[in-house]
């Protein structure tokens, strides 16, 4: 293999795993993660966060944490202004909600920087990969609500009456700004794209206890400080337009100042030739395969990465030219 072919080549990632009590087993049964953990609630597919680091799973840096590779090769991150050495500003997860997640809220960047030792806040986006019948999510308040009313609702276990509960269906998109009270409902299998942050202020957890009979910590006072108590409009699905090229189609799912997410449909069965994959961008990309399988091919030296349902690939900034082939559905994430 030539050095030119190795330069800035994409590589597979292996995730960090989380066994939160609301999780299920779909990340193993649907995505074949092979992780000995039950429940398996989340896999942090692309992460440099210290609470869960992704590990390189292909190429010359196999076995190293992604953050270690990026410290040696900061050019892989590219021109993104918010990323110190070894860090990327976003985090990509799979989430399997066998039970309802806690009702929670995340702080803004400004609040987190000031009161959480310089950390990032958390704005996030959910893409619903699959949802059981009658699945839903909680999104914001139904009406303008005072702090007093929130406290009274918590004391009487009636908080849910004040919240928007929205049906969640396969292929739905939900954008959750920091400060928005929210929760993923049971029966949802979700890809989450978020700021690289692990700051969650739990407001209500249905009185649940863990296997040791211990309640999870709540953060009521912090949550009350950062939440938006104004009424939230029921979220509407964005207008999405598929743009076709030979062997693939893409559509924009969402864009904000932290990230951009596109859905890519690859089907080269009938074209009889591989589709071009857009590389050479000035910042890194993340490819998350959530359905099907295929191959990503380095056109300089013809080395390849086999992609299966559940795989995640890090594409460095100014990557070598690539072709993509197969029948699969992916999320392409950029900053």
Secondary structure topology:
Layout: H1 3-6, E1 11-14, E2 16-18, H2 26-29, E3 42-46, E4 55-56, H3 66-72, E5 90-97, E6 103-105, H4 109-115, E7 124-131, E8 136-141, H5 147-155, E9 163-167, E10 173-176, E11 182-184, E12 188-195, E13 201-204, H6 220-226, E14 243-245, E15 248-255, E16 260-267, E17 275-277, E18 285-298, E19 304-308, E20 312-315, E21 322-334
Antiparallel strand pairs: 1-4, 1-20, 2-3, 3-5, 5-12, 6-13, 7-10, 7-12, 8-9, 8-11, 14-15, 15-16, 16-21, 17-21, 18-19, 18-20, 18-21
Key terms for this structure?
2 domains, Jelly Rolls, 11% helix, disordered N terminus, mainly beta, globular, ten-stranded antiparallel beta sheet, six-stranded antiparallel beta sheet, 335 residues
The number of helical runs is 6
Low-pLDDT runs = 1-5
**DSSP strand tally:** 21
Largest sheet: 10 strands, antiparallel
Strand share of the residues? 35-45%
CATH architecture of the largest domain: Sandwich
What integer value in Å does the Rg equal?
A: 20 Å
Could you tell me how far the N terminus lies from the C terminus, measured between alpha carbons in angstroms?
Answer: 31 Å
Going by CATH, the homologous superfamily of the largest domain would be Jelly Rolls
Q: Which structural category do the helix and sheet elements fall into?
A: mainly beta
Per the CATH scheme, the topology name of the largest domain is Jelly Rolls
Number of self-contained structural domains: 2
Mean pLDDT: 93
